[in-house]
Amino acid sequence: MITAKNPLLASDVYKMGHMEQYAPGTTKVYSHLVARSNKQFDKTVFFGLQYYLDAYLKTPLEPWMAEEFLHYRNRILGASSPVVEQKIRALCDLGYWPIRIKAVPEGSVMPVRNVLMTIENTLPEFYWTVGFVESLILKLWYPITVASCCYKYRRLVDHYFAETVAEEQQFLREFTVHDFGYRGDSSEEGAAISGAAHLLSFSGSDTVPALPFLDRYYNPGDADDNSTLPRDLMLSVPASEHSVMCSFGREDEKAAFHHMLDTYPSGIVSIVSDTYNVYRVLTEFAEDLKPRILEREGKVVFRPDSGDPENIICGDPLAPSGTPEQKGAIRLLEEMFGSTLNDKGYHILNPKVGLIYGDGMYYERYARTLQRMREMGFAASNLVIGVGGILRNHSRDTLGFAMKATYVEVDGEARAIEKDPVTDHSKKSLKGLLRLELDDRLQFVTYDQQSPEEADGGLLRTVFENGRILRRTDIMSVRRVIEESLNLQRTANSFRSTLLSL
């Protein structure tokens, strides 16, 4: 990946000329990152900055990078610029990015339209570097948006677990929404980033690159020492796919189930069950397999994977009464294998069997399914869902991400600046220097037009300065901040101390 070798090329074309376009006499530029839209998510989960700092911005700048940059700039724009050449070569002679980045702790859950991070130059002659790195840093929209989506799912899970699941099974929240999204991402880097974002709220995942990503960039120990991360940070189980089941032939599908049980005589195993007729599997096949399943040390998870998930799991109310279609998968498993009541009065399936659904489970559909399960008397812990592309089906506009300059210094004059287009006031930016605080109600509040002394306070901490990462975090610390946000019984002091300790 060329941009990983030369961070100067991680840019939009128009950034290649901005260093000669600022007002003459400019010596300071101060910018901020913000999510402006709450159309899909009312909260953002800040995540991913450490990766971009580690993989890109801490990379030492070398003279050959300037020449490569100028080579491509001139090919694209068709002409050289002495001003650009001088500034780019001076930057690479300096050898590092002369910028300071302050940010909220990763894992912070905040309402939209709050400042997430600020960036400013540390040397007056390199004022232009603040805007230059915007294109790269703005890619934070992706890990933040995926993390925010997963957080929304986690809040839904927590709601139904609180109502229907006993204390001894609360740990299953971590595995209720499983990441099936590797193949749905656009690149290896994207899959690693989005998979890691999912692991902030859940521990079940099939996206392999997520774990090496966290080992490399969010490991509290050495980057090469994988043992410092908890073994249960990311977990999954052996599972079949349709080609496996089809290899036994349509008439011998049951043999595929027996073969899976032969291959995995203990532990959890997931078997896809809708290759032909999921209702036949959950009745006729289940009855034949029942003695083996009950004798087995572990759990057999049946996986329907096509159709209307809500009706397949909970039953189709329009189907003839008493039919498997009308009963639904969860009721069929209860009839075949039994259930018990937990201390909240909800049914728990026999621990020898389980149910996972991994296709098309968007948020609203999942919410309806959990509500129907509750109305049927089943605890939310009876169902695991697999979600892949839905977690990642976003763009920068999902949360309306932008980086905007709010303060400059020109010929020694401080100027608080803002964007406020008359055609769309929703794009109005903050103004001047910024400060983020947590008020007495545990609400994040952004203050603009601050003095330099005021802007030095608050929750934004310096994490990067002059080519060096000054403050690191690890995945468990990030998860701890999120858990504090999910815990409705938290106190102001504990939440503040968590944030301020990072």
Please outline the major beta sheet: 7 strands, antiparallel
The coarse silhouette is: elongated
SS-derived structural category: alpha+beta
What percent strand? 15-25%
Q: What is the CATH homologous superfamily assignment of the domain at 2-143 and 397-500?
A: nicotinate phosphoribosyltransferase
- Which residue ranges are poorly predicted, with pLDDT under 50 across at least 5 consecutive positions? 488-492
Oligomeric state of the chains present here: single chain
| CATH overall fold name of the domain at 2-143 and 397-500 | nicotinate phosphoribosyltransferase
What CATH architecture label of the domain at 2-143 and 397-500 applies? Alpha-Beta Barrel
| Rg (CA only) | 26 Å
In DSSP terms, counting alpha (H) and pi (I) runs of 4 or more, how many helices? 20
Describe the structure concisely for a colleague.
This protein is an alpha+beta fold.
Based on the model shown, name its key terms:
18 strands; seven-stranded antiparallel beta sheet; 502 residues; elongated; nicotinate phosphoribosyltransferase; alpha+beta
What does this protein structure show overall?
- The chain is α+β, with helices and mostly antiparallel strands and 502 residues long.
- The protein has a domain at 2-143 and 397-500: nicotinate phosphoribosyltransferase, CATH 3.20.140.10.
- Helix content is 37%, strand content 19%.
- It has 20 helices and 18 strands.
- It has helices spanning 2-5, 49-57, 63-77, 82-94, 129-132, 134-137, 141-164, 188-198, 210-217, 242-246, 253-263, 278-295, 309-314, 324-327, 329-337, 363-376, 389-392, 452-455, 475-486, 492-500, and strands at 26-35, 43-45, 99-103, 109-111, 115-121, 177-179, 266-272, 297-303, 339-341, 347-349, 353-357, 383-387, 401-410, 413-416, 433-438, 444-450, 461-465, 468-469.
- The protein has a 7-stranded antiparallel β-sheet with strand order 14-13-1-5-3-17-18. A 5-stranded parallel β-sheet has the order 6-12-11-8-7. The chain has a two-stranded antiparallel ribbon with strand order 2-4.
- A hairpin with a 2-residue loop joins strand 17 and strand 18.
- Helix 7 runs parallel beside helix 8, helix 7 (141-164) packs parallel to helix 16 and helix 8 crosses helix 9.
- The radius of gyration is 26 Å and the shape is elongated.
- Mean pLDDT is 92; it is low at 488-492.
